[in-house]
Amino acid sequence: MSGVTKNLFSAISDPKPMTSRKVTVVGIGAVGMATAVSLLCQGISNDICLIDVMEDRLKGEMMDLQHGSLFLHNPKIHASKDFKSSAGSKVCIVTAGVRQQEGESRLDLVQRNANILKTTIPALCQHSPDAILIIVSNPCDILTYVAWKLSKLPVNRVFGSGTNLDSSRFRFLIAQRLGCSTSSVHGWIIGEHGDSSVPVWSGVNIAGVRLKDIAPKMGDDDDPELWKKVHKDVIDAAYQIIKLKGFTNWAIGLSAAALTNTILTNQHNVHAVSVMVKGRHGLDYEVFLSLPAVIGANGVEKVVMQHLAPNERCALKFSAAMLSEIQCGIKL
Ligand SMILES: NC(=O)C1=CN([C@@H]2O[C@H](COP(=O)(O)OP(=O)(O)OC[C@H]3O[C@@H](n4cnc5c(N)ncnc54)[C@H](O)[C@@H]3O)[C@@H](O)[C@H]2O)C=CC1
Ligand SMILES: CC(=O)C(=O)O
């Protein structure tokens, strides 16, 4: 105890350590920092570790966040190049890696970002052997497979942020058309977090009223109301934002924070996340794709088996076959 502390306080008991809600965010670029800020501002974690290879930037981001302590919930914020500082994390979120440049697809990033996982995933597992890993870096589904392989963890403990973001975009765009709130629209995008994502038009509903019952052609090519455009806008969203501001970060940061909150509070919320799909919906490929899943403290607990229309199953199979082929070319 320093002199000032000794004279200022009269001790009664030692502080009790809080149950840890430590979260590590690997990669402090636009996405990593949006994730960290979302976690801190919503009080989801009070103990954040930032990891990156850029030492000065790490120190700068750490100091800048620490100076906001007064407006937060007195969080601990550490930053280091060394994975030792991530020890004891409950959740590790991987956002490290290159991002798309204008005109590039997510799949163009695959080998470069897989190489980064070769060092980051074993180091995270070594220091936080009980953590749940959430993969955000792109291409999200393939990198989740790579992370799962490298981690040697059971499938429940590694998942990708997947189409949790795409589903949010989908619900927002439908809500805008209908004039109600995003949370009142129930709709799911499944499959690849990317160009072959699958909108489950057969299940879109408001208060249990299936929109397909009112507009049977919804989402079809010959739909007079052109609802299919909503899915096209979901696919184009990242390309459009990248063209406008260079990257996307706020919505994915909020999405990753929501997934983390579900784990840390063992909430059993259903989110569309990238999970091992082999054996589900007739798929025989060892790939990760998004399906609605119940998430809790143990990671992915169950997958919701949606009653997909034949064209939706077919589109999911197309994504799975394509990702499986790309996966075969990755050097692990
Ligand atoms: N899944 C999703 O919905 C989304 C995924 N992304 C993806 O997230 C990734 C990150 O995007 P941004 O933050 O915009 O990129 P960024 O370029 O701003 O940041 C990437 C960070 O990763 C760090 N990094 C690189 N190698 C590293 C290593 N070995 N260890 C630790 N850190 C390392 C870099 O130093 C940099 O700070 C990209 O792959 C991007 O495509 C972006 C938006 C949405
Ligand atoms: C970049 C990306 O994956 C997204 O915003 O959806």
Give a written overview of the molecule.
The chain is an alpha/beta fold and 332 residues long. The chain folds into 2 domains: 17-160, Rossmann fold (3-Layer(aba) Sandwich), CATH 3.40.50.720; 164-327, Alpha-Beta Complex (L-2-Hydroxyisocaproate Dehydrogenase, Chain A, domain 2), CATH 3.90.110. The chain contains 10 helices and 14 strands. The protein has helices at residues 3-8, 30-41, 55-66, 110-127, 140-151, 164-178, 211-214, 228-245, 250-264, 310-328, and strands spanning 22-26, 47-51, 76-80, 91-94, 132-135, 158-160, 185-186, 189-190, 198-199, 205-206, 209-210, 269-276, 288-296, 299-303. The protein has a 6-stranded parallel sheet with strand order 3-2-1-4-5-6. Strands 7-10-11 form a 3-stranded antiparallel sheet. Helix 4 packs across helix 5 (140-151). The termini are far apart. The relative contact order is 0.13. The structure holds 1,4-dihydronicotinamide adenine dinucleotide and pyruvic acid. Pyruvic acid (PYR) binds at residues 106, 138, 165, 238, 248, 252.
Keywords:
single chain; about 325 residues; alpha/beta; Rossmann fold; L-2-Hydroxyisocaproate Dehydrogenase, Chain A, domain 2; 2 domains; six-stranded parallel β-sheet; three-stranded antiparallel β-sheet; 10 helices; binds 1,4-dihydronicotinamide adenine dinucleotide; binds pyruvic acid; Lactate/malate_DH_N; L-lactate_DH_AS; oxidoreductase; NAD; L-lactate dehydrogenase
